[in-house]
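Changelog-adjacent note: as of this version, every example in the card shows the full chain rather than a window. The one below runs 437 residues end to end.
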Amino acid sequence: MSAIWCVDVGSTFTKGVLVDPTDGRLLHSGATPTTVGTDVLEGIATLRGRLPVEPSDTLVCSSAGGGLRLAVVGYEREVTGEAGHRVGLSAGARVVHVAAGELDRAGLAALRARRPDIILLVGGTDGGNADVLLHNATRLARARITVPIVAAGNADARDEVAAVLDCAGRRFVLADNVVPRIGVIDPDSARAAIRTVFLEHVIGGKGLSRGPEFARMVRAATPDAVLTGVEVLAGVVGDVIVVDVGGATTDVYSALVPQGEDAEIHRDVVGHLWQERTVEADLGMRWSAPGVVEAAARERLSVPEALEAYALAAAADPGHLPRGAAEVSLDLALARIAAVVAARRHGRPATPSEAPRPLADVGLVIGSGGVLRHNEPDAALDVVRAVTTDHGGGWRVPEGAQVAVDTAYLLFAVGLLAEAHPDAARSLAGRVVGPRA
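Full-length structure tokens:
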């Protein structure tokens, strides 16, 4: 029989699901520790040895080795810098630096210190000012920063930017302007370019495998695949939010279909991305657990008395599994606070001049992450329900939404299948949602 194997090589665990491409049925799933210390292909081979049938194709996404580190170089921080930041996140990147205005020596030093894998160069609306964009292209061309560049600024300056970078022998890809006009973000071209550069220039250089086979297998950065999966899911169930509580970060994904005046009027300077991801690097269950407690204090959320000590212990031992009912309760409290704070940050306006993200009419909020998959369904649903009952966070809460848990961790596979097997992707998306209330 025909079967497609979808694999997510994470920093800690490698997960795989075997899918029937004709109807999206889940045939097999498994996980094993990622062998990042030797060769990630070893972990993939371990999982492959457990498959009931040999797959006809293998699709891989990866966040191992630190994932995709991206720096944004823009014109104004509030417009093109912010737009580039959002587009970078939607492409599955961890945005490690945002520079605005003309780069100088100090700006270049700060950029270099963040060690990006890719630079997203943006600036100016189409037909607008191109001076800063050309200045920054020239400084990057001459700088001791050799990572690839995705140029997605003022379309009228495209040829000049290309000539500057080409004369310096820099690796670059041209994309459409991420802000073609004020109030509009156009992410698709830049997102595709970032994906191309990641696959061609980044994944093979992370030292994850000794040979070229792994780089040939990878189709996307894991968060990019997940966001694509969320987009497919939204096409099946309607507007959706996914809150993924991980060991180091809490990611929030939303996919909306703009309706009414939201579809026609661009009130905000930067504009909306209707499929978007945000990443909170201080909110995690292990490595960044103390950040959850600190965020709770800033957000005026109540914290169990023993949570601070538990968070410190969890950060010191990222492999810790809760022992006994008391620790399970503290682990769930960490997850609940991380989910609520991450959802608040996702829903709030990015700048004071903008409106909150239009999430009030979302019909389904899904929780994801090991802490939810490995706890009792009712307890996991309570974590997600905390998001939909959070009325003090300064965002438009989807209080009428159903809540659910992605117990099988399928969204990455939905995203990997979406391009070549869209019918199977949609069918698998319908199987994503586990316990629901």
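Structural remarks: The chain has three domains: 4-65+211-221, 68-202, 224-429.
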